[in-house]
Each structure stands twice: as C-alpha cells, then as structure tokens.
Amino acid sequence: MFPIHTTTKRTETRFFDEILSEVETDRALWNRAEAFLSGAEKAEPLLKETLLTPQDVRYHAEGPFVRDHLRLMLMSLYAVVEGKLRLSQVEELARLKEYGHEIEKLEGMLTEHVSWFEAFVLAHDCAKWNSIVFYSPEG
C-alpha cells in the first residue's frame, strides 16, 4: 500500500520490553520527566490530584499511581528525542516492514513536536482522579 523508502540502515533490533527496561533505569530520563511533572503540578494544582491517583493493577498495570505511568511515558518520549531509543530498532516495529517509512516519520514527529506530546501525556488521564473508585470487603 505504501512505498518503502527507508533512510536508515538495518541494525540490530531488540524486543520492546528489553529496551523499556533500560529506559526505566536511565536516571537522566527519570530526572527530566520528574522535573516536567513537578513543574506541571506547581502550575496547575488539579494535576497534583491526578498524579496522586492510585491505579488498580487489574485495569491499569502502568504503575501504582498515575504519576508513575506518566513518568514512564515521558521517559520514553525523551529517550526518542535524545536518540537513546530508535523506533527502527524495536523488534516488534521492525517486523512491520511495510511501515518502515511511517515509523521513521513517527520518530521525527515525536522529536519535532515534543511539547505537544508532553501536553498529551499530562492530559490523557486528567479526569482519572475524579472518576476512580475502589471497593473492598468489610473487615
């Protein structure tokens, strides 16, 4: 359907879980994401409520709190922006050979429009704190 025009040479690929484990332990990415979240919650107090919202592992196995989930999203975004994560090296994406050009374009969009994606990260769960309910049996 789409022509394949790739500008990057095929390199060694790794599974996303392995790459994500490295992103999660990168202290510089953690600090950058945490600085962004701290600034955002100071600028808008309602964001603090969102960041403190617990998540039930049955439905949202993204971390114990929304803050953990958003931090990992930001860390992944920053890893792409800083060149620490190349989408073309993610095995699951590399297998989609017919979308090689689109994956390269996506990486470029993430880098070019990082502020937009930061805003998306903040906004996509903004109402969770006001809608989440936990039930537990008595006793």
Q: Can you describe this structure?
A:
With 139 residues, the protein is mostly helical. It has one domain (16-128). Helices cover 58% and strands 0% of the residues. Helix 2 crosses helix 3, helix 4 (66-81) packs across helix 6 and helix 4 (66-81) runs antiparallel to helix 7 (114-123). The mean pLDDT is 85.
Low-pLDDT ranges: none
Q: State the total count of DSSP E strands.
A: 0
Structural class by sheet pairing and helices = mainly alpha
The total number of structural domains is: 1
Q: What percent of residues are in strands? A: under 5%
Q: Describe the biggest sheet?
A: none
Quaternary structure classification? single chain
| Number of DSSP helical runs | 8
Radius of gyration: 18 Å
Q: Calculate the terminal CA-CA distance, rounded to whole Å.
A: 60 Å
Query: Helix proportion of residues, in percent?
Result: 55-70%
Order of helices and strands: HHHHHHHH
> Which term fits the overall shape?
globular
Mean of pLDDT? 85
Structure characteristics:
single chain; 139 residues; mainly alpha
Compact overview of the structure:
Helices cover 58% and strands 0% of the residues. With 139 residues, it is mainly alpha-helical.
